[in-house]
Structure prediction request, 298 residues.
Amino acid sequence: MAIQQIAFITYKSTGNYSGISDEENEALLLFLQEKGLAISYQIWDDPTVDWRRFDAIIMKSPWDYFDKINAFNAWLDELEKLDVPVLNPLQTIRWNTDKSYFKDLAAQRVEVVPTLWLNQGDAFQAEEVFAQLGVEKIIVKPRVSGGAKNTLALTLEQAVASTSAINALLQQEPFMAQPFIPEVAQQGEWSFLFFGGKYSHTVLKTARPGDFRVQHFFGGTIHTPTPPAALLATAQTIVEKFAADCLYARVDGVAIDGRFVLMELELIEPFLFMATSPGAMARYYEALQAQLQALRVS
Prediction:
């Protein structure tokens, strides 16, 4: 089929992820339009949009999907019924919304951060969680989340004191507990970017002093060192196994004793750090063109 109209998915901004995040979206959209693509911003939960008029949908920045997960899933169902091609693929997006995808990665021998799964309605047992993880500090966060939402870094004493608050959160949704990884605060978190399964560029995100959150909207800073070859090779293997058919993929992790330990595989709406790498938008466009061509001949 001929590709005529492309939806560039975003969200109704409330300022939570503004700044360089919005700048990337604007620059990429303009770049793609200048390449001759008929592509336009569309808010994913705008009830006035007729999705049938689009030949393809790019899931760029629905950055509030985890706050509206039921509505988001219903929208994905609607797109599937309408048979509108989505990039990344719908089945990949559904799989990636819940951090329980870690189980699939671990089954394929991907080294992930050790995780305890806290089901909705469970009672949080601080001493038991710390004993099972064998650490002095933990991270507790929702299984469906983004932007460090409801993410807590706790010692045992703090966890005990926070039990009632965590139990209240567990009444609303499932959570997960992981060891606090000191290397994140000390060295930073690596992000490897891939377009069409091919490596594009790398950033190293570091938290501001006294914080553990590396996101730029929490004061984190972004660096562009040459990544260690072993870390990049591991990230490439992860993409080949789980995201080979994706327009974009971001592999986040930390180096521990020279090994790459996965923290997130971002396949829904990752910030792509395009401004940090000359040619990144051109590589994205090339990957997009390849996927659109595949749709044309399907």
